[in-house]
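Support request, please re-run this one:
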Amino acid sequence: MTQAAKHTKGRQKATTRDARADADAKRERILQTAARLFHENGYADTTMEQIVGELGVTKPYVYYYFSNKQELFERLTWAPTVACFTVLDGLDDSLAAHEKVARALEGLIRITIEYYPSSFFGFREPQAFRPEFAAELKRIANHFYTQLCALLEQGRAEGALDFGDTRVTAQAACSISGYMYTWYRPDGRLSSEQMLRELAPLAWRVIGLERKNFPPILEHT
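Re-run finished. Output below.
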């Protein structure tokens, strides 16, 4: 390949990267606008016309990236759901079972706060989802709870955790983040980090982890 051809190819790659970045930025702007309106008005009372109006663009601009408001709602719900229910997958295998559970519960709370308000959509309005989308959410949730329950039982067998019914304990510990949608506000009295430091120990108590074994809250990166 000649030097001129290499230069041309380099310009084409750069142009493609720029175009991709521009498209990603436009998608993100649409999603964030839709998230705010879904949060303020609810799914049923938010229309594509409202979203378009808030963006100050034409309908084709939005429809180029998203087919309808249901796709927007599901896309917004999917990211925090996957982040929450795969929180156990990336943990260090050298950690003890109770440490993995503690980190997972901390992660659920942190992710729920970070993805506000989209992290609450699935709890607030699950009726808005297509059946196949709801089924996929249930599949990844079951994957998570299967892992979590196994780790809870392992931690109890090792003497690090003290609880009764495994499934009830798992659901109760996770409900601390799950039901934040009923009361959490990002502009409240506590900062997001302060809120995490309040809630994570509560979840750890639910699983019967002794205070002396509480891990330090991970620094946000």
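The chain has two domains: 3-66, 71-212. Residues 3-66 form a domain with the Arc Repressor Mutant, subunit A fold (CATH 1.10.10.60).
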